[in-house]
Design goal:
single chain, 112 residues, 5-stranded antiparallel beta sheet, alpha+beta
Amino acid sequence: MHTYLFVDGLDVVARSDSRMAGLDPGQLLRPGGPLYPADMPREVDVAAEEQPEPGPDRLTVRIRLRGETVIWSDLMYPGPDGGAVEEVRFRLRQYLGEVERAYAAAGRRQLG
């Protein structure tokens, strides 16, 4: 099972590198996991080269919290207008709600 990361309706992983697949939702989305923001910026692997086993290449995002805003930076994918998207910002409450919703949905799929 892979995590799909969408920003403004665009699949960040597929648009960044089509060889990659999002890492397991249990790894990325778990409470307190890598996608949860912290005051100290950190690099988070969000995808790996898709093969029978994940390869050595990784897609990494820099995640940090500034006030009530979650910032993903060090991105590089084409946006809807074709221009490069290098940074995205999310409202903290909405962001955490989406991460928690996705984690719950992934758990239901694994049990179902």
